[in-house]
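Lecture notes, continued. The same structure-token format from the folding unit now serves as the input rather than the output. Read the line below as a description of shape only.
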């Protein structure tokens, strides 16, 4: 044992076994009384004379964790070789640390049902494989000797908990799980017991592992799967919040999949249990202040909310942020904020610097954009999430979200459907859905009403149609390059700014095809109308939302002059930082063939950036062939022919790949010299170069940040480079003040390194 003297909480933990917490109804068991008695509570004086010191120290000499070994008869094996006093201690602990369960026993002769108190401890289970490893526990599969039922046992070393000052996490976890007992979507805690070295949480076994494993296995999840799991996750989060519990570390590893492949949230060690507020609600429902600020630095870098990093607080809305990250991850296969180390990840989160992957489904994108919002007040509330058009077919009220069979797991594949803008939902529909979700009954909405004036659906419709209308309007005028692009370019500040800008252009929420456009810009003559090398003309409007442009041509020369640092960035995303500049050059080809080309120009003197946007749409099912005219020009033959010229061959290749994945048209290589191999070679070279360019500046060995913190703070294991292969770990080991100091230090260090490199 370490030298640190025990705190009151430590004493309590060590002396008072964690007692049964929940009821488990089986034929023979009745655990309806979750807490039986405290008779096994040990006094402080007893504690000092307890076997803890001797046995615990011995058991924990080599490891911080005591993990029960897979065994068939631990009683026998373990007792062998123990000296009599140790054996006595062990027996004492088996008695003292056992959980006491009330069991219904049927008398075989009389048939009478009587209640028996049964003690359950380590000896009652066969331990099997290790299921997982957390930052302060190991989780092992256990089979009840009597019933053969499988459980997951979370094993926590007492000494480790005390040494690492994590006793309170265990207490919180136990209390939270007790409070949540029986709640859908939450892992069930049956009971807890302890022996001299460890605490044991007997948990419901989730045989399908964690959600991260599922995403990794399939690479991503399609919309159907994402909807299924996201609806369960958000419903579970809703339940937590309504019971006054904030999870604060929601991430795919903490979402388990039970035997029916349904969601079970776990790991409540860093949860916040809110005190109940006086309620005058007629239904007598408990009331909690879900907006109460908490300053603890908890969570996991990739899922931590920006308010914790920027303003050092969180409230229940950090769970909504994490939900947004996970939703993104389901479709994209990776979290939105991810960098080489925690420090860089934090930087991204703080700046809300993320980008949607190419082909990200529009409807989910619309929702994610409203979740990954810096200001928690602007983030959708749970009721608004549930009312989002993505969950249109989900009934959150009747519990059916938990009833249906899970869909066949499939990875996300771009489709024409996915690229459609989110359907317009009338305000009435949304209001009634929100109403059905009993908005008013939610305490956090009672306390701080959010303004659901504009639904997410409305906003997205504005966004999409206004973008098109804006484009049409601007493009029928004189498209100009560079600084002259006054009407066409815009400085974008986040999605909201962007939508506002678009709304300015189109005051109407619905898109009216601008028929005049097709007549003003028609035929090859239009090329000469352009004052620069960027030529485009609109042939006709197809359908309600389609905008078909022919001969969109961006000359390599032009691209170079407009975008000196134009690289093969194929990505889509909102402006990527908060400096009100649109930094990304984006080319997106959607399945509707809607291509957006964003470029930027930095006028050095003016320190201004201009953005240029081109769009065209073509119907993929009408694509007949694609031809590489040369390595900078791709011809797409459909009823109308589209030429895309771009200096970047990899861009063209990507376009071809995206279109090809839908239409299966082999590209003809016009020039025999340039075959696919050449393209591939070029692409791999290019991506290597791009990777190099995008890498963070080299950090001197001595100053290297490990896990976001100066290397000196980190143990050797991390320095060996295990960091990147590890799953994201929770930050709960650092206290808020320590963390702030370290973050400040690493920020400072980073700055000086960057300065040096500059
Ligand atoms: N009930 C369960 N059934 C199956 N596997 C489980 C169960 N509980 C936990 N696991 C596995 O063990 C891992 C660690 O569990 P858990 O997150 O509860 O530990 P922790 O020490 O609290 O971790 P963290 O570092 O996230 O705080 C999980 O990611 C999961 O893979």
């Amino acid at each position: 044992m370490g030298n640190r003297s025990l705190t009151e909480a430590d004493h309590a933990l060590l002396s008072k076994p964690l007692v049964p917490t929940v009821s488990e109804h089986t034929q023979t068991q009745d655990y309806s009384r979750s807490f039986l008695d405290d008779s096994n509570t040990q006094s402080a004086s007893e504690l000092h004379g307890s076997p803890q010191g001797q046995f615990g120290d011995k058991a924990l000499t080599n490891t911080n964790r005591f993990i029960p070994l897979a065994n068939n008869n631990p009683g026998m094996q373990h007792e062998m070789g123990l000296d009599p006093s140790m054996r006595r201690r062990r027996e004492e602990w088996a008695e003292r640390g056992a959980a006491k369960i009330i069991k219904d026993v049927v008398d075989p002769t009389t048939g009478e049902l009587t209640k028996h108190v049964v003690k359950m401890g380590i000896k009652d289970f066969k331990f099997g494989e290790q299921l997982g490893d957390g930052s302060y526990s190991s989780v092992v599969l256990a089979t009840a000797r009597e019933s053969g039922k499988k459980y997951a046992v979370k094993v926590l070393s007492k000494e480790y908990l005390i040494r690492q000052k994590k006793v309170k996490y265990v207490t919180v976890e136990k209390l939270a799980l007790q409070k949540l007992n029986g709640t859908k979507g939450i892992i069930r805690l049956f009971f807890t017991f302890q022996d001299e070295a460890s605490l044991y949480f007997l948990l419901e076994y989730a045989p399908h592992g964690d959600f991260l494993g599922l995403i990794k296995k399939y690479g991503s999840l399609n919309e159907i799967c994402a909807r299924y799991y996201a609806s369960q996750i958000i419903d579970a989060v809703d339940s937590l919040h309504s019971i006054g519990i904030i999870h604060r570390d929601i991430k795919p590893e903490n979402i388990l999949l039970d035997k029916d492949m349904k969601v079970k949230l776990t790991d409540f060690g860093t949860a916040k249990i809110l005190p109940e507020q006086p309620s005058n609600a007629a239904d007598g429902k408990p009331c909690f202040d879900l907006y109460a600020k908490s300053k603890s630095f908890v969570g996991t870098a990739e899922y931590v909310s920006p308010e914790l990093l920027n303003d050092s607080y969180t409230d229940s809305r950090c769970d909504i942020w994490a939900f947004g990250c996970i939703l993104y991850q389901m479709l994209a296969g990776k979290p939105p904020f991810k960098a080489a180390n925690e420090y860089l990840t934090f930087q991204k989160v703080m700046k809300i610097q993320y980008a949607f992957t190419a082909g990200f489904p529009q409807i989910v994108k619309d929702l994610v954009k409203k979740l990954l919002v810096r200001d928690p007040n602007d983030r959708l509330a749970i009721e608004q999430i549930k009312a989002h058009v993505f969950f249109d077919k989900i009934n959150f009220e009747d519990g059916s979200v938990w009833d249906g069979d899970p869909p066949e797991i499939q990875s996300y594949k771009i489709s024409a459907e996915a690229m459609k803008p989110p359907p317009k939902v009338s305000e009435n529909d949304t209001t009634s859905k929100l109403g059905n979700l009993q908005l008013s009954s939610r305490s956090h909405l009672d306390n701080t009403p959010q303004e659901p004036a504009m639904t997410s659906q409305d906003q997205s419709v504005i966004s999409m149609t206004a973008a098109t209308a804006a484009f049409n309007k601007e493009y029928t005028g004189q498209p100009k390059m560079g600084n002259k692009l006054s009407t066409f370019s815009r400085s974008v500040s986040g999605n909201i700014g962007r939508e506002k800008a678009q709304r300015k252009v189109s005051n109407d929420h619905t898109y009216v095809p601008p028929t005049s456009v097709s007549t003003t810009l028609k035929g090859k003559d239009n090329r000469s109308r352009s004052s620069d090398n960027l030529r485009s003309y609109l042939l006709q409007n197809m359908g309600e939302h389609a905008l078909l442009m022919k001969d969109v041509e961006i000359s390599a020369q032009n691209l170079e002059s407009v975008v000196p640092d134009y690289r093969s960035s194929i990505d889509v995303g909102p402006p990527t930082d908060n400096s009100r500049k649109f930094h990304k050059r984006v080319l997106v080809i959607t399945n509707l063939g809607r291509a957006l080309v964003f470029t930027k120009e930095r006028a050095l003197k003016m320190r201004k950036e201009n953005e240029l946007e081109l769009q065209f749409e073509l119907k993929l099912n009408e694509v007949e062939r694609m031809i590489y005219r040369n390595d900078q020009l791709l011809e797409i033959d459909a009823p109308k022919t589209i030429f895309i010229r771009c200096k970047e061959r990899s861009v063209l290749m990507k376009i071809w790949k995206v279109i090809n994945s839908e239409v299966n048209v082999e590209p003809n290589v016009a020039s025999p010299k340039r075959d696919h191999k050449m393209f591939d070679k070029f692409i791999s070279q290019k991506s290597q170069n791009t990777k190099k360019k995008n890498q963070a500046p080299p950090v001197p060995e001595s100053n290297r940040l490990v896990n976001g913190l100066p290397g000196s703070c980190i143990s050797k294991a991390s320095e060996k480079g295990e960091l990147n292969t590890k799953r994201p770990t929770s930050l709960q080991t650092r206290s808020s003040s320590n963390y702030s100091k370290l973050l400040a230090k690493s920020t400072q260090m980073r700055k000086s390194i960057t300065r040096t490199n500059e």
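Point for the exam: Residues 736-757 form the longest helix (22 residues).
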